[in-house]
Write a structure and sequence with these properties.
3 helices, 97 residues, 68% helix
Length: 97
């Protein structure tokens, strides 16, 4: 979750009205919003890399097990889905907030 510090306090609410009410000026608000957007874009890139490195191999393994009619396919599916959830939590996106 994105957070910022203003006057020694940590906040997560990036609503312009909220930030004005706590005493931020326009320049400070724009700075917070720019940082939030930058971090979200960075997380999108990191998430994509993590999918390729960590979850895609599990997905391929699950698909292989499905085609072989192996009773272990559910276990592989759960491992893959768990990894995807873990990656999403590790690299949250602004659009999911």
């Amino acid at each position: 979750m994105f957070s910022y510090i203003f006057k020694g306090e940590a906040y997560t609410d990036t609503n312009r009205e909220f930030m004005l009410n706590i005493g931020m000026n326009t320049e400070q608000i724009e700075s917070v919003l720019s940082q939030q957007e930058y971090e979200s874009k960075q997380n999108a890139d990191l998430r994509q890399q993590a999918y390729k490195r960590e979850s895609d191999p599990l997905y391929i393994e699950w698909q292989y097990e499905l085609e072989s009619s192996n009773s272990e396919s559910d276990r592989y599916k759960e491992a893959w889905m768990s990894k995807v959830s873990e990656i999403k939590a590790r690299y949250p996106l602004l659009s999911e907030s």
